[in-house]
Amino acid sequence: MTWNPLDWSLIDGAIPNIILVLGFAALVALAVSGLPHWWTVRLPCALVAAAVLTVLVKFTIDDWWQPWPDGLPDEVASWVGLAVLALCLAVARLVPAAGAPMRWRTRLGVIGLAVVVVVMASSQVNRFYQEYPTLRAMLSPETHALPTGRDPNTVAVPPGKTLSEVWKRPADLPEKGTLSSVPIPGTKSGFQARDAYVYLPPAYYTSPRPLLPVLVLMAGQPGEPADWVNSGALQTTMDSFAAAHDGLAPIVVVADETGSTWGNSLCMNSRIAQAQTYLADDVPNWIKDHLQTGTGRGAWSIGGLSLGGTCSLQLAVNAPQVYGSFLDISGQQEPTLGSHEQTVQEAFGGDEAAFNAVDPLHVMARQRFPDTAAAFVVGNSDGEFGPQQQKVYNAAVQAGMKAKFETVPGGHDWNTFRAGLANNVPWLAQQTGLIR
């Protein structure tokens, strides 16, 4: 364990296990009381109320609100249920008995016990998704101003060579790359996107400047671009690759494909948004206007996790002139708002032909992509997205793509997402002419 509490693990080791023990102890303390009618009235009412509220929460998320297509996992719902139970028990304890006023210290103690249980449940949900490995991952990342100006002296990839084969490490190479937070407007699409993040590797800050490949990366839903920076360990992953390759690494632009935390643009041009135009035109045009990068589809990749993974597949087959390779981590077999019928109705007014025109499986069934490289990654315990990824991979192979399929330890969680990116940065660098 490091000396800095910000770097203590919230996933493994002592901290989450201590929280788990304290949480269950607090739950037992809440459930045991000497109040009048506790065992015959108050406790049964709290249990029934907690059960009803938990079912209502799951119904609201899965069947009514549907903020994300895949619903609330049963394990997560169980931890939510325990938190709700703690709150119900606290209410039952705080209702004063006739003729027996409760002291303020007792009230604070009951509230404190409920808070401990809620923290325990939150910790276990975090362990399930592995989204925040440390407290530091919850903090806003350190960002720098995006460098302006162009270097007239550049190093490009010569025919038959890779950039690393002609690159010479300069003496003044920075130790690490930088992150910048920037707006990328929907100039052509009208899409209202949140600020993107740009990772520039150390070699970008040297002269002559190497014309590095580009990776456009997307988060899932619910989510935001900062997820890749905080939970996805983007800068650590890219800096590690750069350190092993004399400062060379892909430029990464984490773009916003949803427009809001709970939004789902489907990454299509539809009644919902012109999201495909944003990712195929606005984002690449902004990158070309503001950064010096490699040119041509061979130097450009797109990737993402979950919804972002599905989106990367969609852009690769619907805008192959822009992206020559893609990384699909735990994506779905088709864009969805929850069901196929709902998606077609809301996005295309029920027009199946309009959906099929841009749906990846239909596009790959009628068109070949021999010059596109594809990597599919999924957690080995992901029973929902694993079969979907396998189906899409098979379709990509049939469409002539240079495709590979990889499983990593984990489910539909950040352990899988982080590993999916880290394992495939070398592969992306090979596809885009950075390394051999």
Protein described:
The chain is of the alpha/beta class and 436 residues long. It has 2 domains: 5-129, no CATH class; 145-431, Alpha/Beta hydrolase fold, catalytic domain (Rossmann fold), CATH 3.40.50.1820. 45% of the residues lie in helices and 11% in strands. The protein contains 14 helices and 10 strands. The strands form 2 sheets. Strands 2-3-6-5-7-8-9-10 form an 8-stranded mixed β-sheet, sandwiched between helices. Strands 1-4 form a two-stranded parallel sheet. Helix 9 (307-318) links the parallel strand 7 and strand 8. Helix 2 (38-65) crosses helix 3 (74-94) and helix 12 packs parallel to helix 13 (385-398). The radius of gyration is 25 Å and the shape is globular. 45% of the residues are buried. The model has no long low-confidence stretch (mean pLDDT 95).
In short:
This protein has 436 residues and is of the alpha/beta class. The protein contains 14 helices and ten strands. It comes from Kitasatospora camelliae.
Give the secondary structure arrangement, pairings included:
Layout: H1 14-31, H2 38-65, H3 74-94, H4 104-129, E1 154-155, H5 163-166, E2 178-182, E3 196-200, E4 209-210, E5 214-218, H6 226-230, H7 234-244, E6 251-254, H8 275-290, E7 300-305, H9 307-318, E8 325-329, H10 340-348, H11 352-358, H12 360-366, E9 373-379, H13 385-398, E10 402-408, H14 414-431
Parallel strand pairs: 1-4, 5-6, 5-7, 7-8, 8-9, 9-10
Antiparallel strand pairs: 2-3, 3-6
Helix pairs in contact: 1-4, 2-3, 3-4, 7-14, 12-13
